[in-house]
Each structure stands twice: as structure tokens, then as C-alpha cells.
Design a protein that fits this description.
Length: 480
Amino acid sequence: MAERTLIRASWVVGFDGRQHRIIRDGVVVYEGNTITHVGRRFDGQADRVIDAAGKIVTPGLVSTHAHLAGSPLDKSFIEDRGSPQFYMSGLYEYLPARAAAQDEEATRACVDFSLVELIRTGCTTVCELGSHTEYVAEQAERIGLRVYIGPLYRSGRWYTPDGKQVLYEWDEAGGFAGLRRALEVIDRWDGRANGRIRGLLAPAQVDTCSEGLLRETRRVATERRLPVTIHVSQSVIEFQEMLRRHGRSPIAWLRDIGFLGPDVILGHAIIIAGSSWTNYPPGDIEIMAGTGVSVVHSPWVFYRRGIALESFTRYLRAGINIALGTDTCPQSMVNAMRWAACVGKLVERNTNVATAAEVFDAATLGGARALGRNDLGRVAPGARADLVIWDAGTVTMSPVRDPIKNIVYSAETHDVETVIIDGEVVMANRRVLRAADERTLTARLQAAGERMWPRLKDHDWAGRTADELSPPSYPWWEGP
């Protein structure tokens, strides 16, 4: 028989079948990897008791969009920089140079670092999109994280030869070969680690995938019942390119080729018809609501460039399921919730919208719904035992009246004390148990950056150095 664990906590964020509810002085019981009881009391016996007095128990957070294999090396390089020529997007100059300049050891250092960062910020499920998903799966299996792997594939790539224009290089056969390779990876890993490792289809970007590749992706997804995710409406350049090709917005084109549906997760969907960035007649919000897609909002990757979702509240009111993603560094769901709430209010000039409850729902129930999982993102009988214990007695969290408001607006990484995934404690006393020492992780990452920065000039269209691409905040000291 599975071991029975009882958690007694000062606050429990339970789920009543319709919404989260806060239980004062509550209990959670799980047996093996499944929650069996939630409430104010439990009269049965337990093999193990976790005393969470003065602490908050919540469901694990779900990041439905992340790139773990390089994003930590964006840090200290990509901030405060963006070309007006490309409407402040970093996709066309900074990302390609960084990706090409990092070596394989740097990639592994990034993955190892990012997985720990996710767990330390209360994330128990992540969707990883990239080219190193098997290494992500190996490491996630080892440390206990729940992960959906989406090997990226595409029919072409973008590039800029001069910093003035974005061009595309096409390889249609390569796109279909990429889909086949992605399915091979998914076949090797889907269902591993007691089902913690799953697969999803991830055609890379709407503007780098042919209609044929997306139609075949749609067919395979339906046949194999796999969730699908795609980057779409993530830049003004992409929006204009799709208008040039098809005379329709990217989202309208995806609808017209039969790609959209309830199993599709749209990565970003922020530069849409009807937004101030496109100056194009509205209609995309209605398309997304009508087709039942989910939108994964990754706030920080856009907000640091001065680009805001217009708006979190409009999407919700239209009936669109919104999930949250971490995308690039930091891989922090705490960060994602706070920025979604605060900038959501700023855009609407209204403090009563993008509430703590709405962004917490997006980080839990919204992510679970996007993945078609009614056993994640909630603390309820029958759900997976993916749980986070927050220390309510820290300087940042105290005093607590409404734990959700404290988590969204005040919590920091150090407030996450314990993380349980699939019934296993993977982080205790703020330490990820089966990961390398954090000083080792950070030393490897620093060394990766030191190797990468001098190489950037070899991969930039203009041969610019790291300091030319991203000047230091203050000049380097030249004196003795």
C-alpha cells in the first residue's frame, strides 16, 4: 500500500471543483502520488506528518512556455537593448547571436540551472520548447520535475543580413524531418518517470512553418492526442510578414488552415489584430475565444522590452483560457505572476483588474487546462500530489491575511520552503535535493558566459563585440 502523508498547515489553498478556496488551519492528505483528502481535519492514521504551522500549502505552479537550454545566458546581455528597426524585439539580432555563440557545455549548464530555478520558485510542471529536450527530460527525471518536452521544428529560419530587414531561408523537407525527429523523441520519453515526462508537438513559429507542415502537425496531434504549442503574434515583424504573405493576421491564418482548437496553446499571442502595435482592425481575440485555444502569457520577456499585453483582462473577459509561462530568464513563476498582475493593471489603468486570484488561476488551473489535465494545478482529491509549502513567517510574507495576495505581490524565491511533486519531496528547507550544489551551478553558468561573450562577434551580422551589442551599464574602470 502507498504511504499516507498528512500535511497540517495554517493555510491551505484547496479546490472545491469549481474554484480555489482558502482553508484556515487545514489539512492535505496524499497517498503515493495522489491527493485523497482536503479539509479542516482528518481523523485517520498517517505514515508521515508534515507540520506546516505558520505556512501556506498551494498547488504546484505550471509554466506552459519555457526555453531552458540557453535563457540564463540572456542575463546581463539582452536587457536594456532592442532595435527600433525591429520594433524592440530581440528575436532577430540578440537571440541568434547568443544561441550560436554558446557551446554544448553551456547548454547543459543552462538546463541544470533553470530546472533548479523553476523548482525553487514553486513550479512543479514546465513545458520545455527547444532543441535539447532529451537532456531536459533526463535531468528532470533525475531531480523529480514534471515536464512536457516539445522538440522544436520548422520549415525555415529568419535572419538579418544588415540589421535593416528580416529575411527567411526555407527548407521544406527539413521541416517534415524535424517533425519526424520530434515524434521519435516523444516516443522515447512520453510516459517515463511514472508519467511525469510527457510530450507535446511544437512547430516553432507561425512565420517559420509552412502550411503543409502545420496541417500535418494538426493531423498528427489529433491522431495521437498530443497537445500542440506554437509561437504566434510575438513580434510586429512577424505580424507584418504574415499580412504580406496571406493578407491575414497570423491568428486568422491559423484558423483558416484548420490549425486552431482546444488542444492548441498559443505562445504569446500579444501582437494581435486590434493591439496598438499593429494598428490593424480587431478580431483576433474573438477568433481565439471561438476556437477554444489557450494563450500562454510570458510577461517578463515582453515587459522588459516595453511591450504589454493589451490586455490580460480583455482576454479573460472574452473567455480565453490564459496560462502563464516563464519563457526566458529568470525561470520564475513568482516573477511571472507579479508582472502579469501589475502590468495588467497598468494597461487598464485600473487596480481592480488582473487580480491576484486571476493570475494565480492562470499559473495553476489555466496551465493545467491548457495541457488537458484536470489532475494538476489544484489541491483536491484525485489530483496529483504536486504541492508547494510557502513560509508565511518571513519578512517578505508577513503578515498574512490573504495568502494569495501575499504570494502574488510580496513573495520572493526564499519564501518557497518545500516542493512536492508526484508525492515526492524534491525540495526541502529551500534546497533541491537531487540537484548539484547551487554554487556549483552558478560557477558553471559563469564559466559558460565567460566562454560565450568573446564569441558573440563571430555570430553577429555586423561582427559586433558583446560590449558593442550590449554596452555595460557604466564604463569599465580604466585606472589603477
